[in-house]
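Sample A.
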Amino acid sequence: MDKKMELKLIELRRDIHRHPELGNKEFRTTSVIEKFLSQAGIVTRRPSKTGVVALISGTKEGAGSSRVMALRADIDALPIAEKTNKPYSSRTAGVMHACGHDANTAMVAGAALLLARRRNEFAGTVKCIFQPNEEAAGGALGMIRAGVLKNPVPDCIVGIHVNPWLKTGTLGVKAGAMMAAVDRFTIKIAGARSHGAYPHLGKDSIVIAAQVIQSLQSVVARQIDPVDPAVVTVGTIQGGEAFNVLAGSVTITGTVRALNNKMRRDIERIMRRHVAMIVKAYGAGYSFEYESLGRPLENSAKVLSLCRRAGSAALGKKNIVEIEKPSMGGEDFSEYLRYVPGCFIFMGARLSVPHPWHSELFDVDERALAKGAAVLEEIAVSYLLGK
């Protein structure tokens, strides 16, 4: 990639970073992506109100014309007030690209430009998907329902994400299970109010909730095989109106993470049993809602092999990093993998002082943008040429 194009990707990323937008509200971001691609003669369409799809079709005749490779980036920001004090810091109060989706977008857009320059070298099609609303969950599913995996149907899909911990210019890959399923639970305990001086006349929802929370901590610790990673986290507890009144109700919310669907079902079943037994012992009532927000992300061995080979060609074999452990974080890229084999990869973008995803100080080494675009270009061309 020449320096001029690299600077274009940096400016695209900074433009999006200055004007972050939350999930399903990425109207400006979508327009910026469309304009950026259209200047290179790339045709785009909107399957949803803020999602963008770009198609780059090769003009070379011969075998491979039916092949379709998809590349995916997420485009939404987070409700976080930025504190990086960079010239390109967010200009939108309380909203920030604290997960690097601006960089992900720039890498896929850059790959689209590189591929458009090489149309005459390949047959087949590359479909670039710019997906809204990854952070709040539902973005991938919404795009799928809008037909993003049709017309044309991709044979495989690759998602890319900047990683603040990996050295810039390295590519992180992982065989098998890479990221966890994301579930959300809401428990509402219905007790009975009474004066705090006469607790025996009521049913103390706070005491019941405390026992429920304590019990939930034993689900993974004592009822799940310790070699199988799983997490049950209580995130909020709300209840009570006055210091001298027993709370009539308490609401508990939290998340469950697991690396396979059987474990998800087992944890939900055990949690329901714990809650039912504790609440029953106090003669109170309750409701229990359990929602699946995202599936486990498991990479296809075949597509992973393609990414390794192409990554080695683009960056050098020494810059391919094998990630040892799966993450208990979630990623709705997994929704695409229900229908199409694929692989999720990390592009190293570590600064001298790195900060984690979702930090108000998060930023990336922008040299990673050109490298990520080059990796995606090589992956797509390698697939279309049958390498």
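Sample B, a different protein:
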Amino acid sequence: MRRAKFWEQLQGNRVRCRLCPQNCLIGEGKSGSCRARANHGGDLYSENYGKTSSIAVDPIEKKPLYHYKPSKLILSLGTFGCNLRCLHCQNYSISQQKVAARYFDPESVPPLINNFENNIGIAFTYNEPLIWYEYVHDVAKLVKEKQPDASVVLVTNGFINQEPLEELLPFVDAMNIDLKSFSDETYKKLCGGRLEPVLETIKTASKHCHLEVTTLLIPDTNDSEEEIREIARFLAGINENIPLHLSRYYPHFLLNKPATPKETLLRASGIAREHLNHVYIGNLPEADTNTYCPNCGKVLIERKYYHTKIHLKEPSCPRCGEAINIIL
């Protein structure tokens, strides 16, 4: 347990957490909505500091990050808790409850990077890393001090206030942000969040690190032509080269809608490609996940599941010279 950052003390031993836009008012002995930050004696503490529920070495493409260090591996860690309550959560067993976890001292994590061949760094993922804020910040800072060339990656819902985000970003190399919908009403109903803070996170992150965005398409929820176009236009307004991953939904946790039809994914990707240069379909094995030059159409990266074949040596098309938004 570690004293938390970004909160204020109130009368009656209550505290107001200011880490994320939930801005929880937390009474003595109670936890915030994330289940990871709790009021002890009128002070706010991170109860999941260093507690790791999941650890694995994953292909970077699994995050998914297709334009950041393709074909590499990354040591991936998660804890417990989340500041959203998604009805379709894929990792509800660790996001919606406290679970058994092994403690890793921050100093012990950076050396682990060198234990695995082809490993480029550390990813904070599986549950929501931003509610693990103090630990992620401490580990990321240590990684940059001890191994400046190693990567720090976040796979996140992006639901964080701007001040803590801006304090963390200098230590982050890449992010995949989950944009669940382009409707504030859907955000509230589907996961108990709000749209605008996530859009602000996307805009801020795009200025500081490599950014990719994922939207899980749920039938009759966020898969309309209008909404797909709004998402694509928003991202293109920042940078038309931001990779967008449109993933297939399957029934899970508390949501029992049928799986997203293949036709919906193909239609949505076609709409998004009218505005963005790199659009991928996820969770559909037969989908084309190759990367193509947006100018001449040359295949730059071939992907089959997590097997990757790279046809470029620098971030430009070897045929026409078009600059490509990719970090090799």
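Observation for Sample B: The chain has a mean pLDDT of 97.
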